Amino acid sequence: MQIVHTIADLREQLRGFQRPAFVPTMGNLHDGHIALVKQARTLGDVTVSSIFVNRLQFAPNEDFDSYPRTLDADAQRLEAAGCNLLFAPREKELYPQPQTYKVHPASELSDILEGHFRPGFFIGVSTVVLKLFSCVFAGMPEGVAAFGKKDYQQVLVVQRMVQQLALPIEIIAGETQRAADGLALSSRNSYLSTTERAEAVQLLIALKALGQAAKGARLAQLPELEAAAMQTLARRGWKPDYLTVRRRSDLLLPQSEALASDPLVVLGAAKLGMTRLIDNIEI
Ligand code: PAF
What we know:
By secondary structure, this protein is an alpha/beta fold.
């Protein structure tokens, strides 16, 4: 596997390829990322990953400075997974000047849930993803990029950006990878203390219980069920932002009275101690 740090070297290495398969990451890789890389390998003629902790998507009170940077271990894991090329730009390479041209995904989809609790998050994500796409795919007839479903809303925001900007890039959503107890793998799990780690699976348990209750419920009962699910976590010491049942296609509230008939997803975000965890399950 080649490791490159500049856009020029990346493009040089990609010369002659027709369909890169790309997995953008912020590093501190876990089996979820590795599964995406293995999936990507089957989809393009060269497999590229990037590691870049993107300041633009962190609010000032968030964990940009403490976000784990583990480039050597990550590079080894990527190589073992069959990745061909790793793009690991320094901040000055990707943002040589303050990034004043940004992608503002102005839609309800990007303002709700994560967009509501992390204002500016999807502006930062969309901007860096478009810029990384430009680094990897410029001049290519087509490409494919893989994102994990754990960040369900992020996948939809990126899919919509690609559609609306007519980028010739197919977006693939990889299944969430889970630890033996069910906890969704996330780079932020490494922040959890031993007791918090044992407790962390309760988010998934609460999402499953909410999904189960929603299936037999009517639309009007949803707010009550969601509030009860949040209370269950709050009683255990969590600080939930949301636990909610939404339409898979646009994450808006379900419309049809018969909840069981709509393709739905149950999404949740909650803080356990200092760590904010998110997860979701399709029902
Ligand atoms: O999901 C992530 O790790 C990041 O949001 C991404 C897509 C790499 C953009 O920085």
